Amino acid sequence: MTTEHVDVVVIGAGATGLSAAHALRKADRSVVVLEARERVGGRLWTDEVDGVDLEIGGQWVSPDQEALLAMLDELGLETFERYREGASVYIGPTGERRTFTGEQLPVPPAVEAEMRRVTEVLDDLAARMDPARPWEAPFAAELDRQTFAAWLEDACAEPEARDNLELFIAQAMITKPAHAFSALQAVLMAASAGSFSNLVDSEFILDRRVVGGLQRVPLRLAELLGDAVRTGRDVESVDWTDDGVTVVAGDTRVGARHLVVAVPPTAVQRIRFTPPLPSEQREARQHHSFGMVIKVHATYPTAFWREAGLSGTAFSPYELVHEAYDNTNHDDPRGTLVGFVSDLRADEVLARGADERRALVLASLARYLGDRALEPDAYFESDWRSEELASGAYGSSFDIGGITRFGPRLREPVGPISIGSSDVAGLGFQHVDGALRVGAELAAGITA
Ligand SMILES: Cc1cc2nc3c(=O)[nH]c(=O)nc-3n(C[C@H](O)[C@H](O)[C@H](O)COP(=O)(O)OP(=O)(O)OC[C@H]3O[C@@H](n4cnc5c(N)ncnc54)[C@H](O)[C@@H]3O)c2cc1C
Questions:
Q1: Which CATH number describes the domain made up of 46-63+79-84+205-210+292-386?
Q2: Which of 47, 104, 155, 291 could be bridged to 175 by S-S, CB 3.0 to 4.6 A?
Q3: Is residue 393 within 6 Å of ligand 1 at its C-beta?
Q4: CATH fold for the domain made of 4-43+215-277+414-447
């Protein structure tokens, strides 16, 4: 086996790895990117399924995501607004369906007041945290040792307010039950998006999409990098000394002065490092795990909900599909809905057969938007749990106490090796914006 030599090898052609390689190339470093899958993009994947272009992975762009917006500009990619005209739907604890406009859910006044009050508390905590160093927040130790569920139980007097506040962070973002991550993790999620108010504002957080799909970002970056990007190369081993690395994937062998491992923390342990990574590094990643959400896509001959004056936006902490949106493609006469089934509910429906699951999901969409939701022309579930290289969605996060105990280690370089992905980002945590920021930082760490 011959060994090719470059300045930097990058493992992983997701947004993190490709943005790192792009920045390194701009700084005149020679790079090779090795990607295990036969495609680039990782958790960004736009594909045609049953005649419909679907965003199987990440898709939305929000106004605070400056790194992503700058990259879209640089790559000349256009965006369009998510459809949001008309009324949204909320289903309350006893199954009653209410329509509303604006951001305030149609809940009883006492629930609304409590949601506002606790939102202010979370906004204040988020404002006092640097999302890149959450372990340094003055309240870090106290909040990292309690579950978000327990914190909310103390902080919020109204059960319906609690259920909704939990929805915005647990089901909608971390995609783990609120008893499985810390209150500090919840504050980090809010701080990484600018504030908790930003997170709960779907107008803000789910503002725009990219024409042709968000996977166009990694596809364009890979195009610019040309034959430096090699797919179908699942890196098995890395031999390293302080002076450099040798990376092996099947019959590909590349030597370099530096290595960027741009894979989620959970995928780092699939690679055999010789000598092994320091034990504190291995231990830290054992406490990071993926959340789980099923992203459901249903396409209809028309966007029938629009005819009824509905935006397609729907929320309920009491429904199987806890949130749904109009996800109709740019310039497509058909109507597409996207919905999400998270954590414990995802486990429950994944244990059932595909037909039963589909019927349950569509019945949930129908309770929001009417019986026409029961009969889509096309139906598809993005199942990231079956993807060994991600093992869940949207991203991975620490268990209780993990941020303060292990957080700083995930960003520490080891000799010539630097490791990162959107899962360790500060701003843009678990989002493409965070992936691009981490990629740029990893590259800067090498070129500085
Ligand atoms: C269903 C879903 C919806 C989402 N929605 C949004 C959204 O609307 N907006 C948003 O901003 N974000 C969203 N996200 C999150 C976003 O997609 C991710 O945060 C981001 O794409 C992660 O990029 P990354 O490069 O850090 O990691 P990844 O995309 O996971 O890239 C890592 C790459 O490394 C490769 N790899 C792993 N191990 C090896 C190995 N040993 N050898 C070679 N290659 C390897 C993998 O195949 C992969 O391509 C969503 C994610 C999912 C799954």
A1: 3.90.660.10
A2: 291
A3: yes
A4: FAD/NAD(P)-binding domain (3.50.50)
